Amino acid sequence: MSQSTSRSPIDVESLVENFNYRRVGKYALVVLFLGFFLVPLETGIMTALKTNSAIARSLPFAPPAGEGFTLTNLEYAFSQLTNSFVNSLLMAVPATLLNVLLASMAAYGLTMVSWRGQIAVFALFLVGVFVPYQAVLVPLSQFWNNMFPLARMLEPLFAAIPFLQGGHSRLVPLTITHVAYGIPICTVLFRSYYKSLPNSLVEAAKIDGASITKIYRRIVLPLSLPMFGVVFIYQFTQIYNEFLFSFTLITGSNHPAAPVTLILPAIGSSTEGIDFGIRMSAAFLAALPTIILYVAFAEQFAKGLRTESG
Amino acid sequence: MGRIQLDHLTKRFGETVAVEDVTLDTEDGEFLILVGPSGCGKSTTLRMIAGLERPTDGNLYIDGDHMNYRVPQNRDIAMVFQDYALYPHMTVRENIRFGLEEEAGYTAAEMDEQVEATAADLGIVDLLDRKPGELSGGQQQRVALGRAIVRDPEVFLMDEPLANLDAKLRSQMRTELQQLQADLDVTTVYVTHNQTEAMTMGDRLAVLNDGRLQQVGEPLTLYHEPANQFVAGFIGEPMMNFLHGHADDETFTGSGLEYPLDDRLADAVGDTDELVLGVRPEAIDVRRADEATGEREPGPHEFRMQVAVSETHGDQNVVSMTVDDEETDHDALRAVTDGMHVVTQGDSVVVTIDPETVHVFDGETGETLCNRLLETDPELAAVSSN
């Protein structure tokens, strides 16, 4: 009897030896947090895939069974969001690209080129990071509507572009606004990266006769590609998810230029109440572009974070 | 072409003075070495010549042109950095080509040809399509050199280029660099903290300490006729022995040592009270006590000492000795003896210091009062001691 237990494949003795309350506590905490973060997500996905009656009858996080499963929520949400996806990307992609490029140039000028007063200018950038969006909404709408009505000026031009309407011209001031407000934080991010690059590279290029612009184009820009990945992902997510500026400059969900964030609050709600299936479907579809971006750039993202800290 | 003049050059960083009032003149095609301990201002001086630092005071001329406000791009110089500073994202070919692109008057084909030729000179043709990260330290060093010479500049600047190589490669590159410099005949300023490198490579050395120029001269001049105690101690390995003490009645009294000063030394000392005697380790004669004098009392320039440590180098031995009947724990003298002449720890020895080989320094200022006599050219020594 005793022989057979000692030969059993599970080494009970060592399991007991390793058992202690600290370990148990640690794993319990991990499981708790895992649930905390994953259950809402799982519930959302399940709800998106259920019919209304299934949502009412089953537990929120239970998977849809048999008759309760449907794809109509997703189809409906997608048809509602198609236009706004185009609008959002039309605005967010150029805004992010411009933003990242300008911020990297600004950081280069503030870090690797020495000139009088650069600390003061950098201080301005730092202040820019802390300006709350809410504080500038009124001046912003004043500026773009009364002082410099760029959207109205560009309306005929946009009306002439196929697949777009004149109203899409409102995306231009929105894009510019995002570029302006994104530059400070992106500049700070780039600056910390440029500080970590060895100074001798720039010095060697200077001695090789390269001008300030050539040093940026040929040395600094290629070397900061990992950081471009990081800042691009970060800034794209910011701009894509932003609501207040869109709401101020485009005004409503029924405007032809409305981006995703303006459509999302209105979708799935009607006089009969809120359709949770449609809401959840729309939310996941809206999150899709940023998720794809993270997956596509995951490697570069990790690399950029590593080099930044190292 | 390529003559560099530093005229009372000074660089301050805030309150700290990095380089103070350095005046220096190179000849065309000269290999000048800036040497000194870390933080002595040699790199800052080089960076001022390169245009990477702007002088606080004084003037800098290259080839007669005033350079103080000229950016490095317009100075027609090339520099090799201590960390090589190769562009990590470019291949070796692109690295070397980069500087050429800014030079006027090359077609793309000529540039490629030039790169190939330079690579062939340095024996790195096989590496042209690799990235710097895939190269060994020595190979990176060659690429950095290639990047500098491909542009055929007026002046080469080198900031401790051999510091990151292992000892064997370093001595090999030392020879190659010398050869290269001689072939190209381009004025070169070379910074190092390594006095062996300085002694072996340079046409002339400029010794810096605390931002001040101590002495400029040919290696052997600095070795035999140092201008002050710092230069005497810095040049030469193992270091010159220094004995601190006073002069009384033509006799030098140090810790546990009395050394009679002959006429030459006594004249040079004059009224100076605080003295430092300097003797090169290789000028000290060491014999085992039983062989040397037997029971005879030691002569005026002989001392009985005890061997504390004997380092064997093969070709020579470095012997550290303490004064015989003295409780001091520090070594009084270090001597270099012939490789076959072995003494061991604890041996009693008799040390002879020939007065002709003695340098005398002012104990307070460190200035040289008198340098050793040279057998080959005693007149020269006599001139410099005045």
Automatic annotation (TrEMBL), chain A:
Primary site of residence: membrane
Keyword Membrane found: yes
Entry GO CC: plasma membrane
Swiss-Prot/TrEMBL GO biological process terms: transmembrane transport
UniProt keywords, alphabetically: Membrane, Transmembrane, Transmembrane helix, Transport
Transmembrane segments: 27-49, 89-110, 122-144, 171-194, 215-237, 276-297
One Pfam family it belongs to: BPD_transp_1
Protein's UniProt keywords contain Magnesium: no
Topology in membrane: Multi-pass membrane protein
Protein's cellular compartments: Cell membrane; Membrane
Residue ranges occupied by any ABC transmembrane type-1 domain in the UniProt entry: 85-297
Family the entry assigns: Belongs to the binding-protein-dependent transport system permease family.
Protein name listed in UniProt: Sugar ABC transporter permease
Organism: Natrialba aegyptia DSM 13077
Automatic annotation (TrEMBL), chain B:
Topology in the lipid bilayer: Peripheral membrane protein
UniProt cross-references to SUPFAM superfamilies, sorted A to Z: MOP-like (SSF50331), P-loop containing nucleoside triphosphate hydrolases (SSF52540)
Biological process according to GO: carbohydrate transport
Top-level taxon of origin: Archaea
Pfam families listed in its UniProt record: ABC_tran, OB_MalK
Record keyword Membrane present: yes
Listed EC numbers: 7.5.2.13
Record keyword Transferase present: no
Cell compartment(s), UniProt: Cell membrane
GO cellular component labels: ATP-binding cassette (ABC) transporter complex, substrate-binding subunit-containing
Keywords: ATP-binding, Cell membrane, Membrane, Nucleotide-binding, Translocase, Transport
Name of the protein described by the UniProt record: ABC-type D-xylose/L-arabinose transporter
